[in-house]
Amino acid sequence: MNTQQFLLSGWTWNPAVLALCAAALAAYLAAFRLHPRFGYFVAALATILIALVSPLEALADGYLFSAHMTQHILLLLIAPALLLLSLPRALSLPGFLRKFAHPLAGWAAGVGAMWIWHAPTLCNSAAASKPVFALQTVSLLAMGGAFWWQVLARRESERLAPMTAVLYLASSCVACSVLGIIFTFSPVTVCSIYAHPADSLGMLATIRGAWGMTPEKDQQLGGLLMWVPMCLVYLGAVFAQLARWFGEPAPAAALTRENA
Questions:
Q1: Which of helix, strand or coil describes residue 73?
Q2: d(Cα 93, Cα 146) in Å, to the nearest integer?
Q3: DSSP category for residue 78
Q4: In whole angstroms, what is the distance from residue 27 CA to residue 245 CA?
Q5: Which of 63, 60, 55 is nearest to 196 (CA)?
Q6: C-alpha triplet 116, 152, 143: angle, nearest 5°
Q7: Among 10, 63, 108, 138, whose CB has the most other CB atoms within 10 angstroms?
Q8: pLDDT value of position 98
Q9: 111-142: buried (b, 16+ CB within 10 Å) or exposed (e) per residue?
Q10: What is the mean pLDDT of residues 98-105?
C-alpha cells in the first residue's frame, strides 16, 4: 500500500467513537443550543475524530510511536482545552468533583498521564489491546480536563491566579520535556511493539522505505514531539495568562471605579 492509498483507505470508522461524538453533539445542542462558544465544541470533536478515526489512528495502532505520541497530545492537551473553552461562562464544576479540583491534583493528572502511559508495559498493552486503548483514551481526556480546569475554568474564582498559572504551566512543560528528552536519546525500548509492527495494513514497506522511518528515527521523533510541540502548547497558554495578568485592573483603578 502506498501513501496515497493509505490516506484514502486508512480511516478507522469506529462505531463507538462516532456514536459518542454524535451523542455529545446532541447533548451540547440540547443544553446550550448554538452558544457563541459552539465553535470550540466542534473543534474539540474534530480533534477527537482526527485522533481516533483518521489514518493517524491506523499508524498509532502498532506502526509508529510518533503517531501514538501525536494522538496523546491531541487527546490530553488539545481536545480537553477546547471542550472547556466551549462551556458557557456561568457553568461551574459539579459539587462532587470539586474535591478533585485542587491544583496539585490537576498538575499530577496532566503530567502523570504522559509518564504513566509511557511505562513500557502500559504503552505496549495500549498498542496491542483494544480495551486497554479505550481505557487509555478515556483517561487521557479526563486527566487533560483535570489539568486544564485549573487554567480554563469558566468562573474566574475557580481559576488559578495568572502568575500561579504561569508557574503551573511552565513546570508542566519542564516535566514533559524531561520525558521527551529521555525518549529522544534512549534506545528503542519505550514501546518495543513499534519496533516490530504486525503490518496488518501492508504499510510497513512504505513506512520503512518511502518514509524512511526506522524504529530509531520513529522514537526520536516521538520524543521531539513531546519535547517541542507540547511545550509550545504550554507556552501559548503561558502567554495567555500573562495577557490576563496585564489586563487585570490595578487595585487603585478598581477602587476608583467602585467608589464612582
A1: helix
A2: 11
A3: I
A4: 34
A5: 63
A6: 20
A7: 63
A8: 64
A9: bbbbeebbeeeebbbbbeeeebbeebbebbbe
A10: 77
Q: What is the mean pLDDT of the chain?
A: 87
**How many CB atoms are located within 10 Å of the residue 92 CB?**
13
C-alpha cell at 250: 490595578
Q: What pTM was computed for the model?
A: 0.88
Q: Where are the alpha helices (DSSP H) in 61-214?
A: 65-73, 79-85, 103-117, 120-128, 130-152, 162-185, 204-205
Residue written as grid cell 512543560 = 173
Q: Is the pLDDT of residue 96 over 70?
A: no
Cα–Cα distance between 128 and 188 in angstroms, integer?
17
Q: Which amino acid is at 53?
A: V
d(CA 17, CA 77): 19
Instruction: Report residue 97 as a C-alpha cell.
Output: 468533583
Cell numbers representing residue 168 in the block: 503551573
Name the burial class of residue 203, with classes exposed (0-12), middle (13-18) and buried (19+) by CB atoms within 10 angstroms of its CB.
buried
Q: Give the amino acid at 66.
A: S
Contacts 24+ apart (CB under 8 A), 21-30: 21/45, 21/48, 21/49, 28/86
